[in-house]
TrEMBL record:
Signal peptide: none annotated. Residues 151-301 form the Glycosyl transferase family domain. Residues 28-137 form the Glycosyltransferase subfamily 4-like N-terminal domain. This is Mannosyltransferase. The keyword Ribosomal protein does not apply. It comes from the Bacteria. It holds the Pfam family Glycos_transf_1.
Amino acid sequence: VIRPRLYFGKIILYSNLLKKWLGYIDKLILFPFQLQKAASWADVVHICDHGNAIYTKYLQKIPHLVTCHDLFAIRAGLGEFPEHKTGWTGKKLQQMMLKGLNQAQMVVCVSEQTKNDLLRLSSLSENKISVIPMGLNYPYAPMQTTEIKERLASLGIPANSNFILHVGANHWYKNRIGVLSIFYELILRLQQANFYLVMVGKPFTDEMHQLIKKYNMTEKVIELVAVDNENLQALYSSATALLFPSLHEGFGWPIIEAQACGCAVFTSNRPPMNIVGGEAAIYIDPKNPQAAAEKIIYYLPNLENFKTKSLINSQIFRTEKMILEYIDIYQKIL
């Protein structure tokens, strides 16, 4: 595995903007020499993230493929999300990325949704695009009750409480404001004292803090940052349900992580979430907090029925299956 080495990018500077531009020297000027030297002995070069598709122009005489997770940045650069502007530098980088994808020998998308976006935005023919769903990157499974209690206590989760779980970063399409709005509608209707929302991911934004304060949910919303896999497994294994109302996703990893732990999932009735979740998930409108809350409440008494379904569905996304499918692609492009 190789990645751009930091030379200029590690220079200590007070200006983040200048540091970013120096980092481009490492990535765009110096790294291609490192890549070409390393690739000279390789049978296949696998660019594991579409953000590095800019390097395909250096691999035209070497069998190679790119894994494409999503095209949100490229779509934003093209103006498909008017409310989320992309700066001049970002647009140029996205143009380079799309050009790199167009020059790829093979592109593997993590979902049919990503493939459809790629076919629409690129000049690639369909025979140059495959779909291989993501596999779990950690052996998630239901955790024993004793270990769960110890780990929840260490995370500051109140004993004997019920909680809705959300896992995700602060990107706009993760809809964390929507998560808070849905939870507010839930507590209005349920009126349960020992009922919480646990949000795992990046630190809350100012907008999130303001909404929590506005809805008087300071004592009901628990913020967890930098949670490791073992503690996340404990959360998945004990949560009432995962709430994952994303507006867009390339795949939606938390869905299968939760299901592998036997956790019920409420997620958006949009692709790829409603493909990844299969028949084991319950689907909601991510932009209608009231209707989402009502649907969650309707299913709460019967969530145990989704445990077995969740475990079965998660088996579709075994890591071993993903690896074998990639090996098949490697053999095809040699």
